[in-house]
Design a protein that fits this description.
Radius of gyration: 19 Å
CATH superfamily of the largest domain: Transferase(Phosphotransferase) domain 1
Number of strands: 9
Mean pLDDT: 87
CATH class of the largest domain: Mainly Alpha
Shape: globular
Number of domains: 2
Distance between the termini: 41 Å
CATH architecture of the largest domain: Orthogonal Bundle
Low-confidence stretches: 166-171, 291-301
Largest sheet: 6 strands, antiparallel
Strand order of the largest sheet: 1-2-3-4-6-5
Structural class: alpha+beta
Amino acid sequence: MATVSAMFVGSYRLLYQLRQGRFTQVWTAIDDNRGIRYAVKLLLPEFHDDREQLADFAHELEVGVTLDHPRVLGAKKQGDSRHGPYLLMDYCEGRDLRDLMRRDRFALQPWLPSILVQAVEAVVYLHSRNWVHLDIKPDNYLLDAGGDVRLIDYGLARRPPGSWERWFWKNRQKAIQGTRSYLSPEQIRREPIDFRSDLYSLGCTLYHLAAGVPPFTASTTNELLTKHLLYPIPNAATDNPELTPDFAELLRRMMAKNPEHRLATAADVLKQLTNFKVLKSQQAPRQSTEFREVSPGRSPRKSG
């Protein structure tokens, strides 16, 4: 694992590493003059001269500075240091939802309704700012000790394309972008995308969080992509019998192969999700806190 050799990046004192990805690592840092904690994302040394990664870094700042909501992790500024470029972000010491499920696929079930509602709230807000995330997955949601969920990682986020951009996307977009287990069919076909692409990925993500397994698995990439394109949408209640038929049907509508057959907006998903129970044992639907401030310091919310 790559690490930095000194305590400071710019004017921010690094405390300890939170996470590491393929291209970056994230540290907890503090501004000693103001006593404020931040998260600092560093590009790993081997990518300091990689134009594509540098462009993605700059783009994540472009997206992040437009975001200000309890369900998303925004960005403050970008800088350069002796350790390479860094991105200063709001601080959130949490574990990603995928990591929390590694040892026990049903580890989230006691708090599942709240987690799912918050995950959708983040997408509702992101779309209200006119961004399509394009990489929604359990790994890109953090859950903190207070039970609050935040969406992260905007390196692939794009504005919904207009007519010219749609032509450009179809004729110039060569590589499939996103994470294979959660890709919408139109991303796989490299077709123009809009908010409904996120709804498909969000459906796959909610399926994984609730059922404990992704909707589609395969031994090869091609087989996995083929399943997204052609295979029937599985019933989440088969993988987790505690899930209600209403919730399983919502996932089916989110994951329709044809975008025209999906729910129209993330707000529609949120409305439905808060109108019925996710778990059979749940006492009442989990109500949305969308666009309301969340008080810190609570323990994770239990279902009901």
